């Protein structure tokens, strides 16, 4: 099945096999949101971010789910496109979603990585209003300090979280629980 083939590509670090299998999977399962999501995750595993973006967008087109929007947002941030990513995180806007507040911190860090500190500061301010507990978070404090210090500059800030596309297979693995 498609899931097994994609899972094998990821598990055995077979990027070359993925480049042969993926187009067939994409075509034959073009209306299957779950397979498109998995395809996006596997592409992301290999830092094939543009291909991952296409598959994730296709999954959203078929069945718009918050977790897929979040995956697409993280992909766009990794591509250095936090402004595009923000659209996919608007649903994280109530105290009941506190477990997802980390996505907003990553968005703020993505803005800092491209030198957009005013947007980073805006995201952090809004996040703290929605999730007051963030104000005691070490990462939040670090990002806020950086955003304030650089808010009038466009200096990009290096981020270890945000990888450059094409850097090879991800060292962090991925969630392939759907396999």
Question: Would you mind describing this structure in some detail?
Answer:
The chain is an all-alpha fold. 61% of the residues lie in helices and 0% in strands. It starts with a helix and ends in a 29-residue tail after the last helix.
> Strand portion, in percent?
under 5%
Major sheet attributes: none
Radius of gyration, in Å, reads: 17 Å
Task: Give the count of helical stretches.
Answer: 9
Can you write the helix and strand succession as a string? HHHHHHHHH
Q: Helix proportion of residues, in percent?
A: 55-70%
Shape: elongated
Number of separate strands: 0
Distance between the termini: 10 Å
**Assembly status:** single chain
Q: Unreliable segments (pLDDT under 50, ≥5 consecutive)?
A: 164-179
- Label the structural class: mainly alpha
Mean pLDDT: 91
What's the arrangement of secondary structure elements?
Blueprint: H1 2-11, H2 15-28, H3 33-45, H4 49-62, H5 66-78, H6 82-86, H7 101-113, H8 117-130, H9 138-150
Characteristic terms for this protein:
single chain, 179 residues, mainly alpha, elongated, disordered C terminus
């Amino acid at each position: 099945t498609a899931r097994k083939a994609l899972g094998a590509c990821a598990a055995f670090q077979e990027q070359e096999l993925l480049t042969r299998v993926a187009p067939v999977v994409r075509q034959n399962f073009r209306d299957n949101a779950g397979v498109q999501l998995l395809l996006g995750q596997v592409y992301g595993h290999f830092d094939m971010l543009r291909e991952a973006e296409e598959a994730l967008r296709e999954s959203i087109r078929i069945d718009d789910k918050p977790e897929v929007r979040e995956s697409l947002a993280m992909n766009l941030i990794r591509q250095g496109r936090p402004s595009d990513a923000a659209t996919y995180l608007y649903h994280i806007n109530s105290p009941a979603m506190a477990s997802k507040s980390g996505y907003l911190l990553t968005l703020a860090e993505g803005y800092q990585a491209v030198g957009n500190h005013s947007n980073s500061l805006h995201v952090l301010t809004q996040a703290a209003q929605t999730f007051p507990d963030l104000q005691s978070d070490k990462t939040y404090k670090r990002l806020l300090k950086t955003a304030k210090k650089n808010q009038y500059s466009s200096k990009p800030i290096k981020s270890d979280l945000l990888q450059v596309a094409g850097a090879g297979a991800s060292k962090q693995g991925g969630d392939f629980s759907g396999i």
